[in-house]
Description:
Blueprint: H1 2-37, E1 45-52, E2 64-69, E3 74-77, E4 92-95, E5 98-109, E6 114-125, E7 131-136, E8 146-152, E9 159-166, E10 172-181, E11 188-194, E12 199-204, E13 210-214, E14 218-222, E15 235-240, E16 252-256, E17 261-267, E18 273-279, E19 286-292, E20 298-304, H2 324-336, H3 355-365
Antiparallel strand pairs: 1-2, 1-20, 2-3, 4-5, 5-6, 6-7, 8-9, 9-10, 10-11, 12-13, 13-14, 14-15, 16-17, 17-18, 18-19
Amino acid sequence: MYFCGQIYINIAKTIYLMNSIKTLCIVLVVITSCLMAQAIEYQPKFLCGVVKADSWTTDNNMEGIYEFDLASATLTKLTEGRDVYQAPLGGAVYEDGLMKGIHFKTVWDDYDQAYTYVLYHVQYDMETWQRVKAVTLSSMDRNYISSCGMAHNPVTGKNYGIFYNFNMSWQVVNRKLAEIDFSTNTPTRTIIGTASIPMAAIAFSDQGVLYGVGQEGWLYAISTDDPGAIGEIEVFPMGDLGIDNISTNPSTMTYDKRTGKFYWAVVLNDQKSYLYEINPTLGQVSATQLMQLPDNSWLVNMEVIEQQETAIVGDVNCDGDVTVADITCLYNYLLNGDETYIETSDVDGDGSITSADVTVIYNILLGNK
């Protein structure tokens, strides 16, 4: 009898233990889900020109260069007063500490009795935002206006645009993909080929691949190779973004290597401006509307600001975020001796790696200081 009774006791203990483990697992799953939802996530910031906003009046236009903070959905002007040249309408790139671009204005021509364009090559120091170059281009240099902004290739260091090809009456004949070099007062363009699909915005990925959003709402990969005798550049459809009401007003796109996504500011046919996040992965291409832009602002020449990656308390795996994944890294060390992230695992800074470090991360994710 004693033997049988002991068996029953052991079975009871086992069932109790199994139920306890099951309950613990359920609790951990719930906690983990909550913590993942509250993960401290990286949000990009952008440089951009602003050319229009709903609150502006004729006497209070504030065109210029701004910082756009996605996390707080705020636009902050980086200089005082109005400076239209800081928001070049013909496209701009950011390189070597300078913003380099083409601005244009429409002016009345008494001789032709019609409106015409005056083009300017402008450059700004990106630390002070003081203008360091402003050159008026001749009427013969009319084909310097990019129809969809300009893009800097981070791999080759070259700059590109898809430029309007005007006749002498300023009528658009077609559009040309070209490399543009800003090293001389009159920038030089090297024509690559004709672009038959009108693009709303273009940008390079960190791998040096040029992407464009077509005016009809598709995402394309665009070849920058010489098409040879054919004369027309190759474009490769990546996927339908599901947006078919894109206006011809200013549009701009940039790539963030930390998120692997494009960010696209566009004015739709309802004259409202929106920010989209674009996933360029083949087979998963999509556009997610993040917000209507503050003050219905129209943006140009958007560029991701490189944020200094200072050490983040609790970011054990150094991916820029504090998440449950960091807790997993700690457990891998504490339970399995995995030293992959040993240099960043002493979260509380007491000189040792213990369960106390796990507690610190849980408190961070729960919002406790």
